[in-house]
Design goal:
With 422 residues, the protein is of the alpha+beta class. The protein has two domains: 110 residues, 2-Layer Sandwich (Uridine Diphospho-n-acetylenolpyruvylglucosamine Reductase, domain 3), CATH 3.30.465.10; 205 residues, Alpha-Beta Plaits (2-Layer Sandwich). It has twelve helices and 19 strands. The strands form four sheets. Strands 11, 12, 13, 14, 15, 16, 17, 18 and 19 form a nine-stranded antiparallel beta sheet that branches. The radius of gyration is 21 Å and the shape is globular. 48% of the residues are buried. Keywords: Oxidoreductase. InterPro entries: ALO_C, FAD-bd_PCMH, FAD-bd_PCMH-like_sf, FAD-bd_PCMH_sub1, FAD-bd_PCMH_sub2, FAD_lactone_oxidase-like, Oxid_FAD_bind_N, Vanillyl_alc_oxidase_C-sub2. GO terms for molecular function: xylitol oxidase activity. This is Xylitol oxidase.
């Protein structure tokens, strides 16, 4: 079927080029659509800012597939349909007394899309969202069903897969007992004190986000998410990092309404309502923004932050806000944190794509000494040759993709440019 008009991504900066957009309603129909296509890509919640999900042939959207959320309390796992949003999953888990170990900023994104691109969340002790995956189910290029579980050969290549192996249908995730979180926000912490005590600051909460525009001597906002009763000291409240506590609900953008953000001011509440930055029942913005993000080894955190601060004169005029977070290491082949604890340097840009894309090589050059890996679903300039040097298992992933999809049904311009080098 021909779409009535070109479909757009969430931000509106990309028009999908597919000649058809299909909405299967069953596994059998999905398998047949994949088998019959010459080129295909899966389309999730459209919260990617580049052409990772695009194709000129067949786009397959799973939003009309039956939603599955099957909790196994004995195994401490949940089997979830690929198109389910984290918001819907979190609500169901919380109602049953369970939780995920982490959530991204937005609960509106699909589980499969977030996992496949290595999307993370925050907390120095917590791996990205993909690290919770213990089982993967997908439709291969020939329409057959394929499943792998943690411990199987090459499992770590299946998880952050960029859609290159097949169309995900279900994922099985680790779950933990539900827990409560208190979120507090501090304004205008001193950059000098934050960088001088970076490790102590990061250890002071379950999850910490620094929001900044990179100008000036202070961090704009610091969001702390703490487990109720965790017993952590409060160096921030004691003034060791400067700044002062916010007295009203804050939004990362100072001019925006904090009411659409997860509850703050220290009010305790379930993880499902606190770990994400934004409420599920609000759209966090109109979408007219661009995003870029780089994952840097933890040992280079201070140097990398200082390098970006040094580019403030060129970054800040194009910027809406930046966020700095920490993520634990993992063993997933194409994860931004494969083999290393790290920090994430996130940039939310004004919708000026030409100017932003012209700036990205300069940012990547500044971060090159720190082996920065770009987020797969956001804007970046690096090519396959450059990325190959950043991932020890890059060739292993290419081999896995060639074995599962020898004719390249799931390849597109993005994968050819950033992975396969064709």
């Amino acid at each position: 079927m021909e779409p009535e008009a070109k479909e757009l991504n969430w931000a509106g900066n990309l028009s999908y080029q597919a000649r058809e957009l299909l909405y299967p309603t069953s596994i059998e129909q999905l398998a047949e659509q994949v088998r019959a296509s010459d080129k295909a890509r899966a389309l999730g919640s459209r919260h990617s800012f580049n052409d990772i999900a695009d194709t000129q042939a067949t786009l397959i959207c799973l939003s009309k597939m039956p939603e599955t959320i099957e909790i196994d309390a004995q195994a401490m796992s949940v089997r979830v349909s690929a198109g389910t949003t984290y918001g819907a999953l979190a609500e169901t888990l919380q109602a049953a007394g369970f939780a995920l170990h982490n959530l991204a900023s937005l609960p509106h994104i699909s589980v499969a899309g977030a996992v496949s691109t290595g999307t993370h969340g925050s907390g120095q002790a917590h791996g990205n969202l993909a690290t919770a995956v213990r089982g993967v189910e997908l439709v291969l290029a020939d329409g057959s069903l394929h499943a792998v579980r943690r411990g199987d050969a090459q499992f770590n290549g299946y998880v952050v897969s960029l859609g290159a192996l097949g169309v995900l249908t279900h994922l099985t995730l680790d779950i933990v007992p539900s827990f409560e979180v208190q979120q507090t926000v501090f304004e205008q912490l001193s950059w000098d004190k934050v960088l001088g005590g970076f490790d102590a600051l990061q250890a002071s909460a379950y999850s910490i986000s620094l929001f900044t525009d990179w100008s000036g001597q202070n961090v704009g906002q610091t969001w702390l998410k703490r487990c109720v009763g965790d017993g952590l000291g409060d160096d921030i409240a004691q003034g060791k990092f400067g700044g002062f506590p916010a007295t009203a609900a804050m939004h990362p953008l100072p001019e925006s309404d904090g009411a659409i953000c997860s509850e703050q001011l220290g009010a305790p509440g379930p993880w499902s309502d606190r770990l994400a930055h934004f409420r599920m029942d609000f759209t966090p913005s109109a979408g007219d923004e661009l995003q870029t993000e780089y994952l840097v080894p933890r040992e280079y955190a201070v140097q990398a932050i200082e390098a970006i601060r040094g580019l403030s004169a060129t970054i800040t005029p194009l910027l809406l806000v930046s966020e700095v977070r920490t993520i634990a290491a993992d063993e997933l082949w194409l994860s931004g944190n494969y083999g290393r604890d790290g920090i994430a340097l996130h940039f939310t840009w004004k919708p000026q794509q030409e100017e932003v894309e012209a700036l990205l090589p300069r940012i990547e050059e500044a971060l090159a000494p720190f082996a920065a890996r770009p987020h797969w679903g956001k804007l970046f300039a690096a090519t396959s040759a450059q990325l190959h040097e950043l991932y020890p298992k890059f060739n292993d992933f290419i081999g896995l993709a060639q074995r599962l999809d020898p004719a390249g049904k799931f390849r597109n311009d993005f994968l050819n440019r950033t992975v396969f080098g064709a």
